[in-house]
Amino acid sequence: MTVEHRLNTSTLPYLFSPVSADANQPAPLVLFLHGARDRGTDLNVLLKWGLPRFVDESSPLPYFFTAPQLPEGQTWVERESDVIALLDELIASQSIDPSRVIISGFSLGTAGAWHLAASHPGRFAGLVAVSGRVPKTLEPNQLVALKEIPIQIFQGAKDEKLSIEDTEQIVATLRGLGGTVDFTVFPEGDHFIADEVYSDPKLQQWLVSQSFHPTAVAI
């Protein structure tokens, strides 16, 4: 399956893959935010590994896929409005179920995914965080918003960039708020575990099984 390259002057250039042709109803969308070393002007670098490569090398999948690209030196938090604009554009133009949008990130992209999910409650049905940390800038009320969505966190035990203890602390905090968080540690994994994470059939099934249903507020 070939992932399309799309250049968008109003937001960010991005990769896009349609859902399998036999889908007869609105399908999920997986939004992927890449890491720091894949910033630039060449979308092809995103296809070298991780989720973009998995999508590109797979037969048609049961979900839409998109991966915007940051220019050099920028962060996802700085381009938050552009990512949301891209999401809105795709939902308006494709047969995407807006209650089944999953956001995922690797490294720098994980920080962006945490920020966007916390800042836009109701937009995402799930979060997949790979080899990345929660931004220290998140407010307590933003963490509370994250308890509404299932979260999958993956980290290598030999990742020199991240502390297992710090991740365990945020997992405990979110679970204490009532959140659903799965934390998977790869005992021999370093920072670059994305290929192994995204090719796992269990995670692929998880991506299409989430749907956002906000908790009723007691009056």
From TrEMBL:
GO terms for molecular function: hydrolase activity. It comes from the Bacteria. Residues 82-195 form the Phospholipase/carboxylesterase/thioesterase domain. Keywords: Hydrolase, Signal. InterPro entries: AB_hydrolase_fold (IPR029058), Plant_Biomass_Hydrol_Est (IPR050955), PLipase/COase/thioEstase (IPR003140). The keyword Signal applies. Pfam families: Abhydrolase_2. The keyword Signal applies. This is Dienelactone hydrolase family protein.
